[in-house]
Amino acid sequence: MAGVSRAIRACAATSQRTLVAASAVALPKEARVKAATVGRRGRGPEDGRRVQWAFLGCPGVGKGTYASRLSQLLGVPHIATGDLVRDALASPGPFSKKLAEIVNQGKLVSDEIIINLLSRRLEEGEEKGELGFILDGFPRTMRQAEILEGVTNIDLVINLKLREEALVARCLGRRMCSQCGENFNVASIDIEGENGGAPMYLPPLLPPPQCESKLITRADDTEEVVKNRLRVYHDLTEPVEGFYKARQKLLEFNIPGGIPESWRKLLEALNIEDSDNMRSAVA
Ligand SMILES: Nc1ncnc2c1ncn2[C@@H]1O[C@H](COP(=O)(O)OP(=O)(O)O)[C@@H](O)[C@H]1O
């Protein structure tokens, strides 16, 4: 991973044409085969480096939950650009005010800002000797995807999918403990089957008693803003799915139900063998 952060910064400064040309030399790969060759500690297949994966998916689909579990399992950092943005929002000053205005309307922050935040996070990781990563919430625009493809090799992109009515309910049910930082969801979602298909039940993920009085809701998780974020996803991020599909790096995964069932099936889809270690990550 050494140098990826500097390369992303440098690439972001070059012209769009150069970036497209850089991405065009990436060799097509079969994502399923790649995933199948990942070892227990997340080593990549060719050079012993660890996995470099990314998660795509609408707000509320559960990117954070599954990216965080996989990162623990594979021994690589989970880097969520939404968290980087929220950290930046927490520091006082005109920059965070400007950011808050954008985020609280459900819009994306500029590619330049997000690349700066991500490069800084990758630099810190390089200094600590981190290897590999699981990105969550990046890339979210075609330009971000082209920049990333131009500077490093993304092995696999996992695209999580869930029906739209469940997405809104999941975002509105999200809660975080202001003390321990754990994420929960108070929504209990029951959806009828579509076209004769099976119904789906997503149970709530309730906080333990010690967190109950300390729950907070994200300012951008109101119905109006969530609906805007979904529109922004369809307009700006959906094309990124096609970008990785064309490069045979996209693994589509329909969330089948609650976390235990979905996690087990995701591991199966990734051909990651279940073991005692992995069972503990499910608990
Ligand atoms: N890659 C990105 N590009 C632009 N803006 C981003 C990116 N990642 C996060 N953001 C900003 O941070 C907000 C929160 O992101 P995130 O926590 O990933 O939310 P979501 O639940 O919508 O997936 C986004 O709505 C957007 O304003």
TrEMBL record:
Pfam families, A to Z: ADK (PF00406)
Keyword Glycosyltransferase assigned: no
Enzyme Commission numbers on file: 2.7.4.3
Organism: Zea mays (Maize)
InterPro entries: Adenyl_kin_sub, Adenylat/UMP-CMP_kin, Adenylat_kinase_CS, P-loop_NTPase
GO molecular function: AMP kinase activity; ATP binding
GO cellular component, one term: mitochondrion
Xref: PROSITE patterns: ADENYLATE_KINASE
Protein name listed in UniProt: adenylate kinase
NCBIfam families: adk
Annotated keywords: Kinase, Nucleotide-binding, Transferase
Annotated catalysed reactions: AMP + ATP = 2 ADP
